[in-house]
Automatic annotation (TrEMBL):
S-adenosyl-L-methionine binds at C232, A233, A234, P235, G236, G237, K238, E255, D282, D305. It comes from the Eukaryota. GO terms for molecular function: RNA binding; RNA methyltransferase activity. GO terms for cellular component: mitochondrial large ribosomal subunit. It is found in: Mitochondrion. It comes from Branchiostoma belcheri. PROSITE patterns: SAM_MT_RSMB_NOP. Belongs to the class I-like SAM-binding methyltransferase superfamily. RsmB/NOP family. This is Methyltransferase NSUN3 isoform X1. Keywords: Methyltransferase, Mitochondrion, RNA-binding, S-adenosyl-L-methionine, Transferase. One of its GO terms (biological process) is rRNA methylation. The active site is at C359.
Length: 430
């Protein structure tokens, strides 16, 4: 997800990214709060600490401060794992979560809170373009890992959507088995796999990510020869999964931030053969809000994995300046998210679909963003019902029963995936 930030001052809205200056088009208004205001650029040099605290924490004046980078550079695998799993969450952010999420989730917040502070789980996506080594196959077998498609019986029960289906209508038909080979422990236990280093010209055999990250890709339901836009693609996990899921006509993998785009390109080069990268993948750098103007009615499907509060990573932030700034910024993120979703709905073809996703629990960044875009385009957009879709995954994930438009995976100590919100929208064919 792109690390965009918004800062308001008087009647101006300032938008900045991690390493470059980007202009949010003043024509892409997203509500009264942005109307009749000017949008300016900020130099991010002075804001580096707030945006990327991990880059500056190791230079903190506190001689006892230890960065995660130092631990990874100087310690054994076991010591690194112990450090990562024993990190202390920020009390400032916990207090903020208690106020906001305590009100949103009520009595359920205690269990969600405990899960957020526990080590998160990772799954393993096998690379269809690379051979699986004997070592990897042995680890899969010894730890008893299983494919998500087998645990959820996706091959026989995964239901996709018929034409015209909207919220409240329950007409489904069977889809085809997903080609994604994603493995987790059947009892949601943590299994450690080493991270593979990037070696130019050599394809990696697996990619590590949370299992809930698979849901937006499955919900998008890409088919052969589809033209697909991954609007906020870095660091590249969902672009990679999209390319594994079907032989796409073209994947536009977009990331406006230079530093994150380099990481995206490295991810794709590490997993995808050059002939596919050269003929079926376009790595672009456009500000997502401009797709509606540059490529209207162009893509069969669009994934908006939107910049968000990212509750898990934010919880362990150690930079006090950055934490306070993010609490303020968080109030304005829905404006950017709505602009991106609105742009995606213009960029997709009539009859095409858009999946909007975040990794936050915030209702304001999830259902409320979808609701705002529906109000702006109510005659042109249908919401696809994901209730049956989520039922296929109830053996693995805990879902929030109170969402109105999408599905939200809630972290739980016995199923510590997420948070991951997803909603699916269809552009009416006129």
């Amino acid at each position: 997800m792109s690390s965009w930030k918004i800062q308001r001052k008087l009647h101006h809205v300032y938008l900045y990214s991690a390493t470059s200056r980007r202009l949010l088009s003043s024509t892409c208004k997203c509500g009264k709060s942005l109307q009749q205001t000017s949008v300016k650029l900020l130099s991010t040099e002075s804001l580096a600490t707030a945006i990327h605290p991990s880059r500056t924490e190791e230079n903190d004046s506190n001689p006892k401060a230890i960065s995660l980078g130092d631990v990874y550079a100087n310690n054994t695998v076991e010591e690194r794992r112990e450090f990562k799993h024993s990190r202390t969450p920020s009390q400032l952010i916990l207090d903020h979560f208690d106020r906001r999420y305590g009100q949103q989730f009520g009595s359920d917040w205690g269990d969600i809170r405990a899960a957020l502070m526990a080590p998160k789980l990772n799954g393993l996506l096998l690379n269809n373009f690379a051979q699986v080594s004997t070592k990897v196959a042995t680890i899969l077998q010894e730890h008893g890992l299983q494919k998500v498609s087998d645990l959820c019986d996706i091959s026989s029960h995964l239901n996709w959507w018929e034409e015209g289906e909207t919220i409240g209508i329950q007409n489904y038909h069977k889809g085809t088995e997903s080609s994604l080979k994603f493995y987790i422990h059947p009892e949601n236990r943590h299994v450690w796999f080493p991270k593979l280093k990037h070696v130019p010209g050599q394809l990696k055999s697996y990619f590590l990510q949370g299992a809930s990250s698979l849901l937006p890709v499955l919900a998008l339901d890409v088919q052969q020869d589809d033209s697909v836009l991954d609007m906020c693609a870095a660091p590249g996990g969902k672009s990679l999964a999209l390319l594994q899921a079907a032989e796409l006509g073209l994947l536009t993998s977009n990331e406006p931030d230079l530093w994150r785009r380099r990481r995206l390109a490295e991810t794709l080069q590490s997993y995808i053969p050059q002939e596919i990268l050269q003929t079926r993948v376009d790595v672009s750098k456009l500000n997502g809000v401009h797709f509606q103007d540059v490529t209207p009615n162009t893509f069969d499907k669009v994934l908006v994995d939107a910049p968000c509060s990212n509750d898990r990573s934010w919880l362990y932030s150690k930079n006090s300046v950055g934490m306070k700034m993010r609490i303020e910024d968080r109030r304005h993120l829905p404006q950017l998210q709505a602009s991106l979703l609105r742009s995606a709905l213009h960029a997709v073809k009539p009859g095409g679909t858009v999946v909007y996703a975040t990794c936050t629990l915030s209702q304001k960044e999830n259902d409320d963003v979808v609701e705002f875009c529906l109000r702006q385009n109510k005659s042109r957009i249908d919401v696809i019902n994901l209730n049956n879709f989520s039922k296929n995954f109830q053996k693995i994930f805990r879902f929030d029963s109170s969402t109105r438009y999408g599905q939200l995976v809630l972290p739980h100590v016995n199923a510590n995936w997420g948070p991951m919100y997803l909603a699916k929208l269809k552009k009416i064919d006129t």
